Records
---
Amino acid sequence: MQVTERRALFALPVLLGAIACASPDETLPPVESDASPSADAGATMDSAAATDTAFDITGDAPARRDADGDVGARDGSVRVEVFTATDTPVTTDVQPMDVPVTTPPRSGGYYASTRAAHGIVDANLTSYEYAPAFVYYGGRYHYFACVGVRGDWIQHKSAATLAGLAAAPFRTVLSPSPGENHTCDPAVVRGADGRWYLHYSNTPGGTYTDAGVAVADRPEGPYTRITMDLLGHFSGLTAGQYGRGQTTVTLGPDGAWYMAFTNQIAPMEPNSIVILRSPDPSFANTRTEVARIDPAAIGGWSTQLSYDPPSGHFVFIEPAGAAGFLVTSFDTTFHRVAQETLALPPGAGVPGEGQAFLTDSDGHLLTTSPDANGSLVVVGATNGPARGGFPQWITGPNEWRTFRVDPVGVVDFVTPLPGGVRVAGWSYDPNDRGWSIETHIYLGTAAGTTPAGTNDGATRVPRPDVNAAEGTTGVHGFSVTIPTALRGAVEVCTAAINVGSGTSTWLACRTVTVAN
């Protein structure tokens, strides 16, 4: 489902002007133009003629109304009742949009999600794979991993869909040069010059690790090495001394690039995760040390650094065995903010060494990729069978896991009244399934009238059917009557306002006829 901008009344620039008091979490993505969201994307914008289509809670194809005008229920879906317009005069105490909205503290996790799915990136039937990088760019998912070929080689595969990755072939993008016994731990970003920078680890002596960087015009290469000795060469290390490597890179909010790398050269220096800053994505010309982090604060050594613009935090992800993944957030001065666990989707493999978030080409967390719109994506190794003496934590299939973080919900009906409209439905945020999130409703005309926004506040109508079907707790229904001076064809767009990770969600856009 390709995200496109709705070019009628509620184009994004106009809409954002209507929510001047909104917090950063309330920024809405462009309205969807496809009325059939993907299975893991939840309910999104219905931009079709809205009176004959409604989404069920499974996020599958739209349910169609039966002869009585009701939406037919399917297994696992909430039955939607269609209400008839009445002649009741419009009266309401709805809070106008120019009144600031404050959200009280809430429980639950920022990244944790109760809606998760998984699938295969690569079956990994013959050797080992781990330490991936995962980038969505140019309409394709680009997957890089350390693969056992003749030692560690960095290989790449890509596909237009998550499901298509499993059958896509691996192709080598970097193999050891003379002086490099192995190449591993890829991290890939695109610089302002349009070129792709592949950061990696190598083992020139076979027992200690150096860092290198290579550059290419395309994500799939071919790559040309800039240096094989980016962070210093420590050839005198003994058992237990790793060296310097496992580099990961992301673009910070200040326009500078940030690198995290594993520094294990004690007693020469304390073992730590070191953070560097540079204006150059290669880090080969100039860099400044920013911080040193105890790996215990992250949960381990084999980690990935990303930046999350909605939260304003740098984020590390680390495998946590059968518990799932540890996600640790740091502010821009690299002081730890929070740590939480992403639980595994049912049936997913136990994470092995090396996990990565899906990012854009800047190394920013991405929740708007077409196959997982509204979801975080985590990829990486899983524990597998004993094979050739390789560690079992890198011999299982490499998997993707999606974690829905944008709100989901349904607009049950939009009913025209004399001088107004009535809107009802339900929504919740998978980051905190017990929290009552806010509902924003916008009224305008196809002729170009600036939409008037209404904040209905937190959901406050009990919906035991939703709780039973979705496994939620709390109160998740909304029902509001909104007066308007508009007459004739009025477009009514409803949004569920995000909490935690992700962005707000368009639930539906319906056109109704409002009379005097």
---
Amino acid sequence: MTPAPLDLLVLGSGVAGLSAAVRAAGTHGLRTGVITKGGLDLATTRWAQGGVAAALSGNVEEIDLHLADTLAAGAGLCDFDAVRVLVDEGPRRVEELIALGAEFDRDERGNLELAREGGHSVARVVHAGGAATGAEIERALVAAVRRTAAVLHEHTFALDLMIEDGCCVGVQAIDPNGHVQQVRARNVLLATGGAGQLFAITTNPSVATGDGVAMALRAGVAIADLEFFQFHPTALYHPGIPRPLLSEALRGHGALLRDCAGERFVDEMLPRDVVSRAILAEMLEQHSDHVWLDATGLDHFAERFPTIYSDLVASGLDPMTDWLPVAPAAHHQCGGIVTDLSGATSMPGLWAAGETACSGVHGANRLASNSLLEGMVFGPRAIESIASGAFGPSATGAMRSVLGFAESADPTLSILGVALPLPESGPADVTGAHVTSSSVASSSVTPQSLKRGLQQAMSTDAGVQRSAETLERATLVIAQVMAELAPMDQQEVAVAEVQNLAQIAQTLVAAALARTESRGTHARLDYPSLDPAQAHRLVVGG
């Protein structure tokens, strides 16, 4: 007997997916299932260090200042209405998380401690364990989901969306025993996180392979802003992946960036894209693979940042006496599946939230510590819309770039959408492309070797800085990777993950080639200036 469809199936177990699942099952009594490719507590959220940005005082001026900082970081591509929703509803979501049992750092009087991070004009970031905020949020949400969800599918890999009559009705997934099964649901929420594994050096865990965006691409769902991928400037220079992250909060408390001669070379509190490019420029000029973060002047480091302190000690470093080697690492996907203000995508029955989504909040560059907040706000918003009976998208938020314009709080900030053709994924001329040393002998090519080759090409040619020449080189490598993957078993998880990464890489590079300017996280060496005429989203599909 075929089980009855779920009311809601959530893909992903980060802050966006779990916040949504808790609200769906606990508040609205929806029969809710969760699919996650790892354990329920192993999403990218767990690695988030900095904290959650929110104007918790409720003061209108402070909320408006958070809005202004977010718009400034987004370099002209934020959706005004989406940012307004984020900053207005964010404080309430933080309070709800505290009510669920999340414990944030407090001072001796019991007040929440607030940190300042890059791009923020004031201290407004709440944190837990100094720099273990993601782990604390994950802990509270996982416990709540285990109490309320009807069905949990852990260690289960979602292969593709199931589509009937133009609507999403569930997913095909590989269960822990390697069998393909169907999980049907009236609504599917993609909250699968980003694609940091596109790059050789990343702060993201191995599960961050962009599965939700790739599934949406294959289904023809609208995708935008993939060319904007944020690199965190201060990942510890270390052989491990994910790279240990030296939180922005360190710089907020006074840590300084120094070159090989010990000189400061950038304002540490500028937005991340600016700091990352400044670090890369120093590394290239000095022929070095890192610069230094000097935190020796910070008091009570071990007490204030216990998680970072443990990582550093494990790496043989003492932050009280040693300068810390750092370099930029791929950190956050700013674009993704286009949604309206309620998380609806261009396909009825399909919703998206968190890093998987292009809600319009981040624009061309995410403001530090807005990512956890985005998941906490827009995941529950999707549930409210589902519970009210909504099924398809409205012309609000970033979805206006797909459907056209409706009333906006500030029409001058409405962002046009420009259609970008879906890149061809068929056979291509890959002459001169080199993925790995084993590429010559196809029998020795593995998904792992193809992934490493793709990551190296993306890091070298489509990373912190790009140009037409480097992006064309990356295009050749991506085509070869896809050609090598074609005869492999597409229902093997390792193969499917690399296929997903390659499809996202192909779309990212196409968008980066089409955007002939530098804006936010997208820096073109051959087009170094911002072009006001390109203040639009590049949309694929839909």
